[in-house]
Amino acid sequence: MTITIQDLVNNPHLKTQVLAGNGGLKREVTWAHVCELSDPTPWLNGGELILTTGLAIPRPGQEQKDYIKRLIDAKVSGISIAGRMYAPEMINPLLSEADRNGFPVLLTAYEVPWITITRTVSDANSHKEHARLLQTLRIYEVARQAFHNTPPSDIVKTLSKIINCSLYIINPVNRKPLFFEGKLPKNVTDILKAVRPFSTFDSPAIQRIEWRGVQALQVPIPTSRPAILLVFNHLGIPDSIVLSHTATVVGLAIEKDTAIHERQRRVGAEIMEGLIDQRLTPDSANFLLANHGLGKEPRCIVACSAGTQPFEHEWLHLQLNSCNIPHLLTLRGNVLVALLPASAESISSLKSELQTTNICFGISNNFDCPSRVAEAYQEALWALRAAETYNKTCMFYNEESPVSPFLPRGRSETKELVEQVIGDLLAYDKKHNSQLAMTLYIYLRENRSWKNASEKLHIHKQTLVYRINRIEEMTERRLNVTNNVAELWLALEAAMILGLLPELS
Predict the structure, then answer these.
(1) How far apart are the C-alpha atoms of 311 and 335, rounded to whole Å?
(2) Taking the complete model, does pTM exceed 0.85, yes or no?
(3) Which of 208, 251, 415, 500 has its CA at a distance of 20 to 30 angstroms from the CA of residue 140?
(4) pLDDT digits (tens, 9 = 90+) for 272-292
């Protein structure tokens, strides 16, 4: 049986007497700990006896009451003050508050070292330490299972039974559960509003959180993926060391799951590149898509871009997996390309996981045959370009708002336009690693202003004049003739849609 406050008071060697809170002498003491913090509660687990020389006790009466209230709310068993040291002379407000709540306040003689009380509590609770050891061993037996084929959800269920607590793994960034199917209980959905990411500088290892009467413990999980453990205790407050071991085992399961999905993501990216570049045979494409859950339903391509900003999608594949959305992802330049089932649920899930500002989405027509992936990719880029041009968040290829009503809508016709108008220019740039196409684009975008264009390109005006003369010779089009300018601009737009000028998109 765990030692109580009364047992400590009755021990003559400890020379400890009761100053207030006689109604709580039967409280059990799990540990005795020296602490001089004005608010030690974030670092406490409940059941502790606080030992203080008096430095922690404030002098103003109201602050003494607040100090005791904090300890009571944290389920502390009591506080012992060292005699003849640093406690304020007047602690009547503290004692009256303790009496009112049945919270034991003890006075320990000056000559009794705190280590004596700590050792007494530790020795008396040695059987509890043994039980904790057995519990820890059972936890790490689950860790051994984690390296086999046990899914993380089953591991969490097993750990819940071992420590007699309800456990939930939560992403603290978007407050969504991981490895949980079905509807979350109401107490969990309520407490999610109080979940917050940990700060490595000012947060304790285990935090108590509360939302409208619902209480839980928030435990960090040592893993590369954003994750915390929400703990709802059934019988008393769980041991903090046991919780730390539990979080470690959960972290192992998460890391294994993350590694598996990272391999799947890389394989999926290679498949996606092969489909876009038409390097896969129809049979191989159908087989690989079926292995990724994309074999039956109509599919679509979604192109996502944040403009010139870096595209943050580090955990997107994991979030889509947790939503049971089959997918392939690849990053081409600043454009994230996703192959998804052509359903409102899939597209909505993708958009909700990318709730960063200034992200545009272009969505292709639906397709069944994998041989149409390359064409659907161009459709998605076209729709994305249209969304950026018309300042829309999302646009479908079949909408009546292309980048320009004068551009062809088919891939083959678009390629013919590019080849006919600026084909020689692109071939020259590729062969000589030059920037004539870039120069033409900037010059036209700046409305043929020599000054603005040369500043944007960081070149001298005479250099720009030379390049423009060279472009006119190669394209056989004059930039002071309106219809020639229109043809060149539309060809550049078409080249960007085809991905031939990714650095300009």
Answers:
(1) 8
(2) no
(3) 208
(4) 999 998 899 988 998 999 988
